[in-house]
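Support reply, case 0932

Customer input (verbatim):
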Amino acid sequence: MLMTVKDLSVVFETDRGPLQAVRGVSFELKSGKTLGIVGESGSGKTALARALMGIVQKPPGRIANGSVVFEGRDLVQLSEHEMEDVRGRQIGFIFQDPMVSLNPVMRVGLQVAEGIYAHDSRIGKDEVRRRVLELFQSVRLPNPDRCYSMYPHEMSGGMRQRVQIAIAVANSPRLVIADEPTTALDVTVQAQVLETLKKIQTDSASAMIFISHDLALMRTVADQIIVMYAGRIVEQGATNDVLDFPKHPYTAALMAAAPTLEARGRRLSVIPGSLPSPLLMTDGCSFEPRCDVSRNRAKCGVRPALAQIGMLDHLSACHFSDEVSADSMIVGDGGEHVG
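Our regenerated output:
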């Protein structure tokens, strides 16, 4: 097993008390496989990704509990100096917004080269440049020589994202974590970026954690999928099992709210209510106030455990998972027509 995460919790200290962004998350990831993590904004996806990389801002954030065992070492127990060797060399990270993560006053070629130098200070200047140009070709940047000397603002959003991918894979890491890498891109560029990621993963046999709020996208990207809500995993399993046979009301609601060609001309649906405050811990199911399956049944006042629900490796945290299906969730009217 490449990575094993057990009971991982992330807390941020605030003036109003501890904010629990990630609560007891556990999963495993094999080499060469892609794990998808989905959920609404605020569900804990990015906090989880940053915890895996050891880049939770301290203070106010901290890993309050759990372990992240990567290739036999618990990353939670490593010093910052030891983690610096892991980042970039063994685990690459693709941020959501390249305009924030890229240095605006540094040529992009030098930014990629910087990551290579960080893990091999003996490499020569000409060799680094050759390596960067090869990376630019592999991520399908047009005219790599010209791109080498460009600044981020001179590139399109798709080009900047490709530069980020080049930085993430520059040292042939065993794992790449992509935090919503296609969110700000149009559909055509999104498809190109995904194709680039898939090719690199196939060529290097690396594993990937792909974070998104788009369930439909996961069908084309991920082997396994985790659905997060209020910092917890509420459903996980093989991607097709989870998407074709959802066994948690939140997963079913997300799917019902997603626009599809079949829904063309009909009003978009929404999940009523909003995510609970991460400042508050409840004894019961966090999704219960928004759930049509619950129907105010007393059992939902007790937090459900994530448990196997029949299919191999398909887990759900719902007392009434046997009542959930792809069309069982009636969600509110969003008031907008599908295009």
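We compared this against your earlier run and they match. Two observations from our side: Residues 101-172 form one domain. The radius of gyration is 21 Å. Please reopen the case if you see a mismatch on your end.
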